[in-house]
Amino acid sequence: MKLHGKKCQLWSVGLLLAAGAAGLAPASAEGITVPDNAKVRQMPWGEFKLAPRIVEKLAAGEKANIVVGLEGTGIPIQGAEMRMGMARGCENANKELPAECRMVGPVNPDTSRQLSELETILNSGQVDCLALQPPLPNQFTGIMNKYADAGIPVFAINIDAPKSKRFAYYALNEEQAGKINGEATAKLVKEQGIEVKQVAMGSGAPDQPWAQSRMRGFIEGYKSVFPDAKFFNDDKSGLPTGKNFTTQEVLNSVTPFLTANPDVTLFFHTDQGVEGVGNVIRNLNLTGKVFTSGFNVSGPILDAIANGTTLVTIDQGFDNQAQAPVEQCARFLAKGDAPADPLQYLLPIVITKAGGEGQITVDNGRDRLKAASE
What is the number of structural domains in the chain? Predict the structure, then answer.
């Protein structure tokens, strides 16, 4: 998982009202006629046939049930932002056809519970289009294929299942996002005249493809500004900072690492562990001497950017990752539109102290964080 963060499994009457979403004015009181290219469509993996029950209910003016399934609905930031995005997407979806949007998944990551719920709502006909976050790459290929075989369009979000019968995948291009971070970090180092002797990298999941892609991208982006930069480790040997992604684990792992390696004056972290790295720098009285950059957003991460300890962080835009497939569900059912390229990469939201071209300021970051917390 890539935040890491999570979500609630209630039908969205209360949820969507609270989020300002779904159940808006129907596109047509008489219902809609599903186009032929949505009823039957040739996909790279074979022929897809939309379930006749979906065609019939939309023709009768009933609402399409669009479901967003998360690994964990209560994961900090991710869960709340995904809820916001689903609400926005559902509002826009209702311009195409009558739709109601629902979020499902265990509050905290639980693969067995997540899979069981997906089986239940599939077998009871509660889903007309699904946007799903698998726990790991390709881990839920089987259930996603069951949905597609049952005539339900499926989209992957945040974590991909490229071997499945999914229509498309919505998330960051991890390597590109890492590259953007590395380049932005290097430019700030250059502008501020920071002396960087050696760069080290760490992750809560250094063995995972998403983390290695971010590290690989960071190296490329940083070296585009400083070609001769020295790296302590590479994308295959990032420092493990704690599999549970907690700040305390980062304190326990990065404190002795920086103490033993005084030449490391810049530490890139692939996830919210950047918060802990900032704490380590302050605890060791290395503020102004050692710096960090990373991914994700929290109050302490934004504080660290404001005081100069953290140079760059990437807001993954979880709201955008949920919004896009919800809208795509409506476009497919109403118009037969589907992405030509299954890899629908979204742009990262780059946060620096002062902002700039293609970046937002700390204050802008705080506004997004506040919205996700309300």
Answer: 2
| Cβ contacts of 349 within 8 Å, gap of 6 or more | 314, 315, 316, 317, 360, 368
**221 and 207, same structural domain?**
yes
Q: Which domain holds residue 260?
A: 174-308
Q: How many CB atoms lie within 10 A of CB 250?
A: 26
User: To the nearest 5 percent, what fractions of the chain are helix, strand and coil?
Assistant: 40, 20, 40
Do 20 and 143 belong together in one domain?
A: yes
Q: Is residue 186, in this structure, part of any structural domain at all?
A: yes
Residue 285 lies in a domain: yes
Determine the length of the chain.
374
pLDDT, tens digit, 9 for 90 and up, residues 247-287: 999 999 999 999 999 999 999 999 999 999 999 999 999 99
| Reported pTM | 0.81
Looking at the structure, tell me whether residues 158 and 286 fall in a common domain: no
Pairwise CA distance, residues 354 & 365, whole Å: 11
Ramachandran quadrant class, 166 (left: phi over 0; alpha: psi -120 to 50; beta: rest) = beta
Question: Structure tokens of 243?
Answer: 């599999």
Determine the Cα angle at 27 with ends 25 and 33, to 5°. 150
CB-neighbour burial class of residue 300 (10 A; exposed 0-12, middle 13-18, buried 19+): middle
Candidates 118, 139, 175, 218; CA nearest to 343 is 175
Q: Domain containing 275 — which CATH number? A: 3.40.50.2300
The residue assigned the tokens 């002062």 is 354
The residue with tokens 């779904």 is 22
**226, part of any domain:** yes
Whether 164 and 20 map to the same domain: the answer is yes
- The ranges of the chain with pLDDT < 50 are 1, 3-28
Separation of CA 367 from chain center: 18
What single string gives the DSSP state of each residue in 297-333? --HHHHHHHHTTSEEEEEE--HHHHHHHHHHHHHHHH
